[in-house]
Design a protein that fits this description.
By secondary structure, this protein is mainly beta. It is built from three helices and 32 strands. It has a single domain (49-79, 94-394), classed as 7 Propeller (Methylamine Dehydrogenase, Chain H).
Length: 445
Amino acid sequence: MDDQYIDQESLHDPILLLSNITPQKPTIRSYNPVETRKYFQEAKIVGHQPKLGGLNFIACIDETLFIAEDDKIFCYNLLGSNFRSRTTIKLDGEAHFIRAVTMNDNEKALIVVGEYGLTNMYVKSNGTFKPLKFNSDEESTWSTCFSKQLGLLITGSNAFTLKCTPIAQNSSDRPFILSGHEHNVPCIDISSCGQYVASCSIDCNLKLWHLPTKKCISTWSQPVEVGHEEWMWSVKWIHSKYIFNMTDDSCSTLSPSSMNKILGSRRSYCFTIEEEEGEDSDKEMFPKGELIVAASRYHLFLIDGTTMTTLHGIYMDPCNTMIPPVFKIFSRLCLVEVIPELSLVLVASQSDVKVVLLRIVRNVAGSYRLVPEKYLPERQDTDLMSYDPINSFCYEKINQDDSISLPKFRIYILTYQGAVHSYVISGRRREGTRIQYLDVSEVIL
């Protein structure tokens, strides 16, 4: 400890305190992989069979699980080992995507977007969910995020645009449109400071928008190493303060056979790219310290949010010959979540039967990598008759008020046959080290 420098911010940030590092003087630490304790039983929700083509049909707020099906949202109280239906929300159109967001320190909300410009927000207040409707005549909406700092509800649509709507009842501001994409916008995400939106599009590009000025400040294109441009499907932010250091650049702990089982049969799946910076713009306008995780059909990218350069990429074609033809068109990495506190990325294709867990790491030279660790559910290979790929997944922090323990999360995985798998993912410290690693426990619903 004597040779380590700890700044004042780390004394108040549990993640920085855990690692006791600063960018000026990184601490050399050993790497610990995911550990799994399996207590598994899938839960079938009677009557549910998610529709093909949607982008996310499951979300959770304070142990209330929401599952979208056509023009309804089914709400379940997660009490012990039972799904107890509390209510059903009737929508004005078919849902394409649902997402839980935090509005402020005391309020959470469910956002639903879908057919014919469907845009609803259900704000939790005193144990109930108050509906707010922002429907419009625009094209179908497929993506959404929320800036709690600016009070803006943002949606991406088949009009190739992002619509930003102030939600404050006393606000005199009018909705505004961000234009620049040349095709549909299947995913958007808000930065931790609430000032920037990243959007990905079927036009194969990713754009970075500065909300206060309503401008696109950079456009990222796929590196030439990909070989051909792929439609972009997912984008998420993570701040670099959450990334921990590695001592070995070849840090994957998986055997070649395990790696192939997770990422596919192709051995050369990783590549590192050095790329020119994005559009000429005022660099003072760019986010500081933010990273972006983006996914196309077969590739996962890690991007510097300040320079918009590609830091690392992984090829993730499952190469699974067992995929039934009906699911092959959904071979796309459109399911991505980032848990910043654990420096963890969860990614899945809607044609595959597993969710891959990767950690974002930084070596002593300052280079970043995406390191695959596990896949969930850890079930045996199935035949065509029982093939049940992932439809959607979500996560929720479950120790909100515990400032002493390391963060703990529960994830829910929904399959096309209506099965729900649930896992508890937590960070722990090994005795004698300062590295945070994952503990994954599958729980019975």
